[in-house]
Amino acid sequence: MLKTVICVSGGGTNLQAVIDGIARGTINNVQIVRVISNNKKAYALERAAQAGIDAVCVSPRDYEDREQFNEAFLKKVEEADPDLIVLAGFLVVIPPQLIRRYENRIINIHPSLIPSFCGKGYYGLKVHEAALTRGVKVTGATVHFVDEGTDTGPILMQKAVAVESGDTPESLQRRVMEEAEWVILPACLDLIAAGKVTVAKGQAHIAE
């Protein structure tokens, strides 16, 4: 059983996709052992509670400095003793010590086809606003492993989504979630739990 901690800052739609996938049996041998949010008002915490999943909030606002927050966050992760950490819309810079401790055991879902519209400043609606401003015809989502850069770790899976005439950032965001994010994140969890994913020389590989 792949013990998984999911970190989220907002509504938790990707969290719900994972909860639903486990319930339907499309995600096998995965257990969400804890949900962590930096936002006390995050609906993701309510989603976790409704599903009977342990949920905690660790907010930077409750600590004097980033170092104290990082220590508290690391403690909450380690208490759950996860095999995998999933960043599902988690708008917090992950402490380097956590990344090193869980090397190749942290994945993130990003709402674009990396390397487009990623890196510092690209999150939430900002990603979709940038895609529409640039006039791209195809966007999508990416699941990647987390390293000490921003959206720079090995890419595990991507799924493309067409940009439609008349799209707004909000409509594009919704379609990317429905057609890509909620599809590839559960798929990646199932593959990792099945032992089919490896990382070597900066690239992620999926066994046939």
Describe what this molecule looks like in 3D.
The protein is α/β, with parallel strands linked by helices. Helices cover 37% and strands 24% of the residues. The chain has a seven-stranded mixed β-sheet with strand order 3-2-1-4-5-6-7, sandwiched between helices. Strands 8-9 form a two-stranded antiparallel sheet. Helix 4 (96-101) links the parallel strand 4 (84-87) and strand 5 (106-110). Helix 1 (13-24) crosses helix 6 (169-193) and helix 5 (125-134) crosses helix 6. The radius of gyration is 16 Å and the shape is globular. The mean pLDDT is 96.
Offer a concise description of the structure.
This protein is α/β, with parallel strands linked by helices and 208 residues long. The protein is 37% helix and 24% strand.
Strand content: 15-25%
Mean pLDDT: 96
Shape: globular
The helix content, as a percent range, equals: 25-40%
Strand order of the largest sheet: 3-2-1-4-5-6-7
Which secondary-structure class do the elements indicate?
A: alpha/beta
Distance between the termini: 21 Å
Radius of gyration: 16 Å
